[in-house]
Design goal:
Layout (H helix, E strand, L loop, with lengths): L1 H29 L3 H10 L3 H35 L3 E7 L2 E6 L2 E6 L7 E6 L11 H24 L4 H22 L3 E2 L2 E2 L1 H8 L3 H19 L22 H16 L3 H12 L7 H17 L3 H7 L2 H10 L4 H14 L3 H13 L7 H17 E2 L2 E2 L1
Helix pairs in contact: 1-2, 3-4, 3-5, 4-5, 4-6, 7-8, 8-9, 8-10, 9-10, 10-11, 10-12, 10-13, 13-14, 13-15, 14-15
């Protein structure tokens, strides 16, 4: 959604700049004052002009949301056709999930994404799992939709308002195709086209990709970390810290160690990751610092925990706390150890217990509640014994 606001903001800035340039230019040519020219320009704008502008902006927003749905729907169709299984479909924070064999609505927020379709990989050997169509499906859906809209504009005599809507669909569609169809990294994350080219060549990365998808599906079903197969938490060797799939595997492995109370092992792995933090995308940097805060609190490194829990990390944690239970765990640990507010820590735990069914990732909920109880039992006089 941020990309939409940036696009609208850019258009508004462009209009303002255009007026600032055009009005003095007309005044210079006609030999009139700038005030006189500006008055003529704005008096010629009637209610119909304003209504058309409002309609254009509204359709821009609608087109953006529709192209997100179409893009993620393309991933869904391509994935299903190649053996993947449906797990969840999200637009903004509204998320449709399959839980206990039926579809349910949940809320989930992930910074930097307007939507997401997550599937579970086929139960096949790695070399028989195709990731190319899965990644290509979104762009192909946007291409097809954009071409249909262009065809309708050129061949049909449609009402002006509908033409405007279709033109916005074309504009946003081209934007999506370029951003996802040209191989590149956006904010440190490989886009669909780059994933399509890299995953089949980078077998450790492809394995990480499949592990992350399977782990997400199992997390949604609520399997405990102690019950999940160890193969899902294998870390690629060597680790490419600029590869988001590799980093995701490292964070998953560290999370499981924390769930199993293997705090020193988790701290060691996260410390190594911190030495490569500059190579990671911003989201993973924040996730890493969040996990380091918890690991430091759990191992009694309180001063170091304060260093990791920066204002940016705190903002990240608070933003996602309503939909991600591990952020509630961090808030509870910070309240207990860094703030010395045990009643607040207990209240956070009680709220999570009361609202546990509202979260998508039930494996993380079980882990968070277990670690909250452990922290409350273990914490004494500002240190973990």
């Amino acid at each position: 959604m941020k990309a939409l606001f940036k696009l609208i903001g850019s258009l508004l800035v462009g209009i303002c700049i255009g007026l600032v340039i055009v009005i003095p230019l007309i005044a210079l040519i006609d030999g009139e004052s700038i005030v006189t020219v500006a008055r003529k320009v704005f008096t010629k704008i009637d209610l119909l002009d304003i209504a058309v502008c409002v309609w254009a902006f509204l359709t821009l927003i609608v087109a953006f949301l529709l192209q997100i749905v179409i893009h993620e729907g393309g991933h869904l169709v391509a994935g299903l056709l190649t053996g993947y299984k449906f797990v969840s479909f999200r637009l903004l924070s509204w998320t449709l999930i399959r839980k206990d064999g039926r579809l349910q609505w949940r809320k989930y927020d992930l910074a930097g994404t307007g939507g997401q379709c997550l599937l579970a990989p086929p139960d096949r050997p790695l070399e028989q799992i195709d990731t190319r169509w899965y990644n290509a499906g979104g762009v192909l859906a946007n291409v097809i939709t954009t071409l249909i809209c262009i065809l309708l504009i050129w061949t049909c005599d449609l009402p002006a308002l509908l033409d405007i809507f279709l033109m916005m669909m074309v504009l946003i569609g081209i934007f999506f195709v370029l951003m996802n169809g040209i191989p590149m990294k956006i904010g440190g994350v490989a886009n669909d086209a780059l994933n399509l080219l890299q995953l089949e060549k980078d077998l450790p990365g492809k394995q990480s990709f499949c592990n992350v998808l399977e782990l997400n599906a199992r997390n949604q079903e609520g399997e405990l970390y102690s019950e999940l197969p160890g193969r899902l938490f294998e870390v690629p060797e060597p680790i490419d810290w600029k590869n988001s799939m590799h980093v995701a595997s490292v964070l998953a492995a560290a999370t499981r160690k924390q769930a199993l109370h293997q705090w020193e092992e988790s701290y060691g792995l996260l410390t190594e990751a911190c030495s490569h933090k500059a190579d990671m995308m911003i989201l993973y940097q924040l996730e890493l610092e969040n996990m380091m805060t918890l690991a430091c609190i759990a191992t009694g490194r309180i001063d170091e925990a304060r260093q990791h829990y920066t204002p940016d990390v705190a903002k990240h944690v608070n933003r996602h706390a309503t939909t991600q239970s591990d952020k509630q765990l961090t808030l509870m640990a910070v309240a207990l150890s860094l703030d010395g507010d045990r009643p607040q820590a207990e209240e956070i735990m009680q709220q999570l217990e009361a609202n546990r069914d509202k979260y998508i990732h039930q494996t993380d909920v079980a882990m968070s509640l277990d670690l909250m109880h452990w922290l409350l039992d273990s914490y004494k006089k500002e240190e973990i014994k």
